[in-house]
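Allow me, if you will, to draw on your knowledge of protein folds for a short while. I have a record of one protein: its chain in single-letter code and its fold written as discrete structure tokens. Kindly check, if you would, that the fold set down in the tokens agrees with what the sequence suggests. Thank you for your consideration; the sequence and its tokens are set out here:
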Amino acid sequence: MSGAGVLFLPEYLSTVAQSIERKTTFMEIHIPSTEVPVLTQSDVLVCGAGPAGIAAAMSAARHGCRTVVVERWPSIGGMANNPPKNGWHRSDREKVVINGLVEESAQRAGRDGWIRRDPKYPYAHETHWFSPEGMRIVWQRMLDEAGVKTLCYLAAGDPVIEDGRIRGVLVDTKSGRRALLAAIVIDATGDGDIAAKAGLPFEFGRNTDGLVQGMTLMFALRGIDSVAAARAGPEELDGLIRHMRALRDEGGFPDFNEGNTRALLSFADDHYLWNMCPVAGNPLDEEELSRLTAVSREKIVAYLDLWRREMPGYAEAEIDQTGFALGIRESRRISGL
């Protein structure tokens, strides 16, 4: 059947295909207004449980506020441990300048062997190296002790706006849409999602071309013969880097961070987290993020294939872990006080 606003299936598929190619919305639908059950009411609602969200939620709760934090990923920690990451930069190379809850976290993690100081502390920018798995536990304990209600597996959706003020956010649960209401809503999503959806102004990218900083995918290897790898001297490492560079320039090898690659090949061992796999794109485009994440994993396969053949100690190496999310360095910058 056909009629106003109704398409035959072939026409529909053609329209969708053209829409995908143009990356535009091909139509709009009307969603009737409904009554949404309220899941939580609190003094403070924090959207996002990365380091900023954890600090905000913990601070609010410790000052007596009923606090809820909602996190889209299965566990808290955000970009600190889910990409995964393992380093803190707390020093200006003369003294530690980031303290507070970060120092408390370090002390707690230290008691369980989940963090260590850099040998050059505090005269190194990279002051601490931590276990991503351990920090998840440390931060969850701190939130629980402060009385914060933690809701993982939920992405903060549309903001609830009344009389020009944000009153909460909507979330889509396995039982249907629910509302999280609060006197104060804190956007710690990393991308400024809630602020942008609420209509607040923001900046994105640099003024010259609108581009943001690049992203990387962290990974770890196992099966490295560290004794054999240690025999590779500077000349051998330089030769391998030159070969990788030449293959890249010819189009037969993926891009890589040369400085990090040389350094990591000289000391990395099993399970060490590598950061040398770059990609560039729009962190606000889910389709592009999906593609770039897949491209990053293919890059890691290509790196390892070459190292197995040409790098001493890597003949039996294999991929141990890749981050399930790209490390995003820059996104929206909310315009505010």
